[in-house]
Amino acid sequence: MQTHSLDDLARMVPNGAKLALPVDYAGVSMAMTRPLIARGLTGLHVVCLPTGGMQPDMLIGAGCVATIETSAMTLGEAGGAPCFSRAVREGSVKVMDATCPAVHAGFLAAQKGVPFATLRGMIGTDLLANRPDWKVIQNPFAEEPDPIVAIPAIRPDVTIFHCPMADRDGNVWIGRRRELASLAYASERTLVTVERIVETSLLADEVMAAGVLPALYVEAVAVAPQGAAPIGLWGEYPADMAEVTRYAREARTVEGFRAFLDGADRALEAVS
């Protein structure tokens, strides 16, 4: 397997792409955030499975995102997502509001190769009035009126996430984070950053193999130690909530967000 640089992976994301990103606890490739911003991407349709946090918020703040599809945007204990909130107030980003089950249903439909999946939970809510792409249909197997909601398949162009390890064959360890498999199965291409490359095949061990995403679903891998920081990575390191809180505070203004990015760039230069 050829390993790539972060910039290599960023170049695989075109302007206007439908970009899928995982929930914070599943493995967010924060290491890819700055390369994506530096690339000057525009018009992205970001889909969060099922919620978004610091990474999509930074992409919004940098002007990369035209549409955000998610069931929530939050920095957890650090509060709301400041760039997202500002963009909503200004009307500079289109919000496709959803629920967690609805987002999962859209990815499930894409995995199965069908045009939609069905749910009931939104009937009676105002979500349907704001999602014209969701259709209320009659259950074809019921003799009496029985409405259900058809959720269209979500088929991302690109998915990006971070994991503890990959092997030389390109297999990636996702453990019990099955939402990462859902992202990869539904996407045209999947780009993964990892803490390390291991020499032994991850599929060789009968127990470990159950938590492996096969290389068949992985377009490219880049090594990025501490690549989820300041968001934590399961089994590796916790979130740096002091840093997330600093971001939440500084990014409340456009000037503060830019200063945060400039500081991150200087830190990267000092390390390199």
Structure report:
The protein is α/β, with parallel strands linked by helices and 272 residues long. It has helices spanning 6-11, 24-27, 33-38, 54-61, 82-90, 100-112, 127-130, 178-186, 241-250, 254-271; strands at 3-4, 18-22, 44-49, 65-70, 94-97, 116-119, 135-138, 147-152, 158-167, 172-173, 189-198, 212-213, 220-223. The model is unreliable at 266-272 (pLDDT under 50).
Task: Fill in the keyword field for this structure.
10-stranded mixed beta sheet; 3-stranded antiparallel beta sheet; alpha/beta; 272 residues; disordered C terminus; 10 helices; single chain
- The total count of helices amounts to 10
Strand content: 15-25%
> What is the typical, i.e. mean, pLDDT?
95
Structural class by secondary-structure content = alpha/beta
Q: Helix coverage percent of residues?
A: 25-40%
Largest sheet: 10 strands, mixed
Distance between the termini: 25 Å
Q: What is the 3D shape?
A: globular
Unreliable spans are 266-272
Please state the CA-atom Rg, rounded to the nearest Å: 19 Å
Instruction: Give the SSE string.
Output: EHEHHEHEHEHEHEEEEHEEEHH
- Got a strand count? 13
How do you describe this structure in short?
By secondary structure, the protein is an alpha/beta fold. It is built from 10 helices and 13 strands.
SSE blueprint and pairings:
Blueprint: E1 3-4, H1 6-11, E2 18-22, H2 24-27, H3 33-38, E3 44-49, H4 54-61, E4 65-70, H5 82-90, E5 94-97, H6 100-112, E6 116-119, H7 127-130, E7 135-138, E8 147-152, E9 158-167, E10 172-173, H8 178-186, E11 189-198, E12 212-213, E13 220-223, H9 241-250, H10 254-271
Parallel strand pairs: 1-13, 2-3, 2-9, 3-4, 4-5, 9-11, 11-13
Antiparallel strand pairs: 6-8, 7-8, 9-10, 10-12
Helix pairs in contact: 4-5, 6-8
